[in-house]
Write a structure and sequence with these properties.
By secondary structure, the protein is an alpha+beta fold. The chain has helices at about 5-15, 55, 65-70, and strands spanning about 20-25, 30-35, 75-80, 85-90, 105, 110-115, 120-125, 130-135, 140, 145-154. Strands 3-10-8-5 form a four-stranded antiparallel beta sheet, with no helix packed on it.
Length: about 150
């Protein structure tokens, strides 16, 4: 993807007023996200706080809460969201979930659905194993590549 193509995508996002645009061509992927402008929310830019030593070193000042539990389960495989959308663990409200923690899964078995642009996309297991943990709450928005389940392979 060339710089000119990226500039055109930015112009398209600005002209159309969309909040987010993601384009993937082969191995190249670009995501353009618009946020509120400083003038739009009525604040002026003020002085910034100096970065802490941890931030200057490039390490996070606070470790993510999920990191210790995932690190302890190094023998598990994460099932990640292939798209942006809303996560649902059952086919319809009031129905039993597709899978629960402790369930055995096989390749091709439906684990959940992600609603994206009014389409329900079934997310299937790619390996056989045991569901160790469910990492997303029902009805919550998910991002591309976000971990949904942790599965311990057979």
């Amino acid at each position: 993807m060339t710089i000119q193509e990226i500039k055109e995508l930015i112009e398209l996002a600005n002209e159309s007023g969309i909040a987010e645009l993601e384009v993937q061509r082969g191995e190249n992927r670009v995501r353009i996200r618009r946020g509120p402008l400083v003038q739009d929310i009525g604040f002026s830019a003020g002085p910034t706080m100096p970065a802490t030593h941890a931030q200057q070193q490039g390490t996070p000042a606070v470790a993510p809460a999920a990191a210790p539990s995932l690190a302890a389960e190094a023998d598990t495989t994460l099932v990640k969201s292939p798209i942006v959308g809303t996560y649902y663990d059952a086919p319809s409200p009031g129905s039993a979930p597709f899978v629960k923690v402790g369930d055995q899964v096989q390749p091709g078995q439906i684990l959940c659905v992600i609603e994206s642009m009014k389409l329900m996309n079934e997310i299937e297991a790619e390996i056989s194993g045991t569901v160790v943990s469910k990492l997303v709450e029902n009805g919550r928005p998910v991002e591309y590549g976000e971990a949904l389940f942790s599965v311990k392979p057979k």
